[in-house]
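cron nightly-structures :: item 1 of 1
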Amino acid sequence: MHCTKSLRSAFATIAATLLLAAGASGADTAPAKTDTTPVPAPSPTATVATVNGVAITQAELSRAEKVLLSQNRPMQQPMNAEMNKMLREAALNQLITKELLYQAGRKLEIKDLDKQVAERIAHSKGRFPSPEEYQKALKNADMTDKEVEALVKEDVIINNLIEKDIASKITISDAEVKKFYEENSDRFKRGETVKASHILVGVEPNATAEDKKKSKEKAEAILKQLKGGSDFAALAKKESSCPSKEQGGDLGAFGKGQMVPEFEKAAFALKPGELSPVVETQFGYHIIKLTEKHPEETVKLEEVKERITEFLKQQKVQQALAGYVDELKKKGKVEVLAK
């Protein structure tokens, strides 16, 4: 326990996803287990599909497969031939969809395209501890700066298309929001919460039994002062070793599972205005004062209306996007050259 507590992403940023797969923290990750049956490696420059005459290469497909595989890496599930086939099909479909949307999006003007691209790249670079770590991630993803720039440019163009041709035409009515709220009431339950302040007499991890005894005695003395009428906030500022002392010991509101068990049990057992006895945790000795207590409740519609509206709009955008892509496929020419 510490003492203190888009819609435009409907088509995810490809470059950012690839960098994440390469390891945004700069840490190397072991490859997922795969079927060891030897398969001849196709040429990276080989064309695996064409979209209105534009080639999708094996190198692009391999990269997309790597991304999809990394997204399921926590499973660490061995890949057999059937799963590899499904992975390939999903990755290729993603690339075809991207190219169709990119070609359609290029027909729309974006006045500040270069600026948006530069800002997104700068944001991606800012996620790395250093320029060296960024370059390491690029290398791990088998990408160059120019490839990242091209992918980000595609992403900006695609998202602009989605916003202007799809999202801007979708509205969510109050009736739809209310219907979703009423049919999914369990989603809007808020558990019991409390608001509390505390004074902590800290204990170092390597403290001796004698040190702990002295700290506990100090906490007991502070509790005695509080019971005698001393101001809690003033004593917290003077005696507490927690950064919350700057706010008079105020920890704000919290629910169950947010504090260490001993602290949580003591806090939730109190009534507003009550003081706890001295409570021992791994951090030392606490004196807790409960200021507010709120039982489990259903969050009012007004509080979640905006979130529901955004959720329903995203759903409709995804549905409309699927139909939009189907139309692009019908009007265009997509050829898959390698199975």
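cron nightly-structures :: done
DSSP finds eleven helices and nine strands in the chain.
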